[in-house]
C-alpha cells in the first residue's frame, strides 16, 4: 500500500486488518490477545533484581518537597530489572515494553500496597515487559478522574519521560475514563492490572474451553473501552499497539466504526457463550467417568508461582511445565499415582490464584477449579519464602470455600523451604501448626507429604476373592487400577486374585467371585 491514492475500500480493509478488535476476535488462533506486551520473554530466575535507583539517590523528589510529600509518592525499591549485558539491552529494547508501575495506598496499608506492586511487577514481567520503576502515592482513595492526584500525575509524566518508559500500569482496575485522562497527562499508554492478567491468560490458555473463556473475558473488558483504544493507538507514534501503521488509518474512529465494532463484539460474545455451554457436557462426562472409577483424587492448589507444578513433578516425576512466571499453568493437569501400599489415586495440578482477579476472569478461573471441588484431599501449596504468606493463604482459602471445597481435608504445604531460615520457619509454623515444610527443588519433606496424603486418602475396604479366566487379562489389570491387590495365585482354571476395592467397584466384579 505505497500509493497515496488509497481508495476508501482499501483503507477500510487495512483498518480491518490492524484493528485491535479484529486482533482479539482472531485472538484464539494468533494468541495476539490484547497484546499490551510482546510475548513473554525469559523471566529472570533470581526474581526481581535490586533497584537501579534506590530511595537514596532518588533525585526526582528532590528538595522541592517536604518529607511528608516525599513519603506520599514513594518508590518501591527492588522493582526494576537490572539489565545484565549489552546484548541483553539491545535484545530487550527490540522486543519488550518498558513499564512504570503505579499504585495508590491509604494510611497504614503501605506494606500491603508494596507487596501488591511487587506482584504486579512479576505479572508484568511474565507478560514480557521490563519494569523500570514502581511508584506509590498515599491518598485515601484513587483520584476519580486521573487515578493519581493531578500533581502526582504530572510528576509521573516527568519520571516516565526521564526513564524512557512507554507504558504505565496501574495496580487496580481503572475506569475507562480514568485511563484516558491519565494517558492525556503522561502521554504514553496506560493500562491496568486486569489488562495484564488478561494478556497472560490469553498467552497461556491451552484447552478449547480455556481459550474460549479467556476470549470472552477479553471482549467483556474491551467493550466499554472501545473508544479509548482507538485514541491511544493513533497517538502512539511508533504504533506499538497495533504494529507499524496502526495509527494512520484508524485515527479518531468515527461513531459508526465504534458501533460496528460493538455489534461484532456482541455477536462474537454470544457465540462464545454458546460454545462454552456446549463444552460443559463433555467436561461433565469426563468428570463422571472419573467418579465412576472412583479413584480418589488429590488437588494441588495454591497461589500462582507457589510451586504447585514443581511439586507435582517431584511427587510423580511427571513432566509438567514449570516456569518462573505467573500463571504458567492455566489448564488442569491430572496424573496417576499410587501410595506406598499400592492404592491408586490421581493428582490434579490447578491454576494459580491471584489477588484481585479480574471479575471477567472469575468464570474462566472457576471452570478449572472443578478439580478442586471434586477432590478427596486439597494440597494447599504456599510459597514459604513469599513476603506475605498469610495473605496468600487467606486468598486461596476464600476461593476454595466459594467453590464448595470447604469440607475437603486440606494439607497446607510450605514450599521453597530451601529459601527460608529458622526464624521464618517458626513464624510459618505458628500460622499453620500442622503444615508440612517441603522443597520441590531439593526434595526435602516430600516423603512426609506423601505419607500424609496416603494417610488421608480413603481406603478400599472390601476384600474380594476373585477367579479370573486367563483370557480376561483386562479384568486383572482393571483390579490393579481400581484397588489394591493383596495376593495373586495362578491356578489351572485362571488367576486367583485377592484384592481390596472400594464398595461401589465391587458390583462390577461380582461375576468373577470365586
Ligand atoms: N527455590 C525454590 N524454588 C522453587 C521451589 N519450587 C518451585 N520453585 C520455583 O518457583 C517457580 C514457580 O514454580 P511452578 O511450579 O511453576 O509454580 P506454580 O505454582 O505451578 O505456578 P503457576 O502454574 O504459574 O500458578 C519456578 O521458578 C520454580 O523453579 C522450591 O522448592 N525452591
Ligand atoms: Mg503451575
TrEMBL record:
Keywords: Cytoplasm, GTP-binding, Magnesium, Metal-binding, Nucleotide-binding. It is found in: Cytoplasm. It comes from the Bacteria. This is GTPase HflX. NCBIfam families: GTP_HflX, small_GTP. One of its GO terms (cellular component) is cytoplasm. Residues 296-461 form the Hflx-type G domain. It comes from Frondihabitans australicus. GTPase that associates with the 50S ribosomal subunit and may have a role during protein synthesis or ribosome biogenesis. InterPro entries: G_HFLX_dom, GTP-bd, GTP-bd_M, GTPase_HflX, GTPase_HflX_N, GTPase_HflX_N_sf, P-loop_NTPase, Small_GTP-bd. Residues 1-20, 35-63, 234-256 are annotated as: Disordered. Its main location: cytoplasm. The keyword Membrane does not apply. Belongs to the TRAFAC class OBG-HflX-like GTPase superfamily. HflX GTPase family. Residues 239-252 have a biased composition (Gly residues). PROSITE patterns: G_HFLX (PS51705). Monomer. Associates with the 50S ribosomal subunit. PANTHER family: GTP-BINDING PROTEIN 6-RELATED (PTHR10229:SF0), GTP-BINDING PROTEIN HFLX (PTHR10229). GO terms for molecular function: GTP binding; GTPase activity; metal ion binding; ribosome binding.
Amino acid at each position: 500500500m505505497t500509493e497515496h491514492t488509497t481508495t476508501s475500500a482499501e483503507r477500510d480493509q487495512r483498518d480491518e486488518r490492524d484493528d485491535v478488535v479484529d486482533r482479539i476476535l482472531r485472538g484464539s488462533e494468533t494468541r495476539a490477545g490484547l497484546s499490551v506486551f510482546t510475548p513473554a520473554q525469559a523471566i529472570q530466575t533470581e526474581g526481581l533484581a535490586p533497584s537501579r535507583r534506590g530511595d537514596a539517590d532518588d533525585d526526582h523528589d528532590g528538595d522541592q518537597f517536604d518529607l511528608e510529600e516525599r513519603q506520599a509518592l514513594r518508590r518501591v525499591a527492588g522493582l526494576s530489572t537490572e539489565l545484565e549485558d549489552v546484548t541483553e539491552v539491545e535484545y530487550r529494547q527490540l522486543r519488550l515494553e518498558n513499564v512504570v508501575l503505579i499504585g495508590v495506598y491509604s494510611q497504614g496499608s503501605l506494606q500491603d500496597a508494596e507487596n501488591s506492586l511487587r506482584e504486579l511487577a512479576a505479572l508484568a514481567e511474565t507478560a514480557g515487559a521490563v519494569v523500570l520503576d514502581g511508584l506509590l502515592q498515599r491518598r485515601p482513595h484513587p483520584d476519580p478522574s486521573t487515578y493519581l492526584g493531578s500533581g502526582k500525575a504530572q510528576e509521573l509524566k516527568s519520571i516516565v519521560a526521564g526513564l524512557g518508559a512507554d507504558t504505565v500500569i496501574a495496580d487496580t482496575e481503572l475506569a475507562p475514563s480514568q485511563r484516558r485522562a491519565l494517558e492525556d497527562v503522561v502521554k504514553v499508554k496506560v493500562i491496568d492490572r486486569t489488562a495484564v492478567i488478561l494478556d497472560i491468560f490469553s498467552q497461556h490458555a491451552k484447552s478449547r474451553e480455556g481459550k474460549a473463556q479467556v476470549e470472552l473475558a477479553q471482549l467483556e473488558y474491551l467493550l466499554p473501552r472501545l473508544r479509548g483504544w482507538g485514541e491511544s493507538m493513533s497517538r502512539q507514534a511508533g504504533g506499538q499497539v497495533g504494529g507499524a501503521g496502526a495509527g494512520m488509518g484508524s485515527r479518531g474512529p468515527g461513531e459508526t466504526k465504534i458501533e460496528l465494532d460493538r455489534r461484532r463484539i456482541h455477536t462474537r460474545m454470544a457465540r462464545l457463550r454458546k460454545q462454552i455451554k456446549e463444552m460443559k457436557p463433555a467436561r461433565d462426562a469426563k468428570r463422571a467417568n472419573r467418579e465412576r472409577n472412583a479413584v480418589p483424587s488429590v488437588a494441588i492448589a495454591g497461589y500462582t508461582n507457589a510451586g504447585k507444578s514443581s511439586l507435582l513433578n517431584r511427587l510423580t516425576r511427571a513432566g509438567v511445565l514449570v516456569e518462573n512466571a505467573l500463571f504458567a499453568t492455566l489448564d488442569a493437569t491430572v496424573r496417576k499415582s499410587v501410595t506406598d501400599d499400592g492404592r491408586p489415586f490421581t493428582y490434579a495440578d490447578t491454576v494459580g490464584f491471584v489477588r484481585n482477579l479480574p471479575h471477567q476472569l472469575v468464570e474462566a478461573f472457576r471452570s478449572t477449579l472443578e478439580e478442586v471441588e471434586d477432590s478427596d484431599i486439597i494440597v494447599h501449596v504456599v510459597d514459604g519464602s513469599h513476603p506475605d504468606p498469610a495473605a496468600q493463604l487467606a486468598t486461596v482459602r476464600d476461593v476454595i470455600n466459594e467453590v464448595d471445597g470447604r469440607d475437603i481435608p486440606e494439607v497446607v504445604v510450605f514450599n521453597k523451604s530451601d529459601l527460608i531460615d529458622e526464624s521464618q520457619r517458626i513464624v510459618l509454623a505458628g500460622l499453620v501448626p500442622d503444615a508440612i515444610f517441603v522443597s520441590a527443588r531439593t526434595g526435602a519433606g516430600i516423603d512426609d507429604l506423601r505419607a500424609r496424603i496416603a494417610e488421608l486418602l480413603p481406603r478400599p475396604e472390601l476384600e474380594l476373592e476373585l477367579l479370573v479366566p486367563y483370557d480376561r487379562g483386562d479384568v486383572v489389570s482393571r483390579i490393579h487400577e481400581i484397588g489394591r491387590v493383596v495376593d495373586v495365585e495362578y491356578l489351572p482354571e485362571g488367576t486367583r486374585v485377592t484384592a481390596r476395592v472400594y464398595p461401589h467397584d465391587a458390583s462390577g466384579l461380582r461375576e468373577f467371585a470365586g
